[in-house]
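thread: overnight batch results

M.L. [08:02]
morning all. the overnight job finished for the chain we discussed friday. pasting input first so we're all looking at the same thing
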Amino acid sequence: MAADPTGDPHDLGVALAAAKAGDELAFRLIYRAQQPALLRYLSVLVGADAEDVASEAWLKIARDLRAFQGDWDGFRGWAATVARHRAMDHRRRVQRRPVSAGPVELLAADLPARTTRPTRPSRRWTPTRRSRSSAAFRATRPKR
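M.L. [08:03]
and the structure it wrote out:
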């Protein structure tokens, strides 16, 4: 399948149908036609991580392409929706795991110096502590 990726939508619709049937060259054609627009869109949503998010989106697009129903314009909208979902997943993932921008040495400087001995006695749960806390709990319960 040889066609110009900037060609008319009819050629891209034919390429889309061939890609759905498993034609790798046709998939390459629709990728080359759609990737620049997806990257522009994703760069607005996630900034510098746009290429990583786009690769995740194309993995999903490639996996689910056979189930897609529609023409070239519908594919463009579907691909943008898949990319937006991957971008939102990426933003949630980044918010859950914030990254500190700074050298590790600065973080280590803020930590107190570690001594060889603990600064306070161990708070292990011993049988004596257990019996004391049980007695304290029983003393606070109302009598029946």
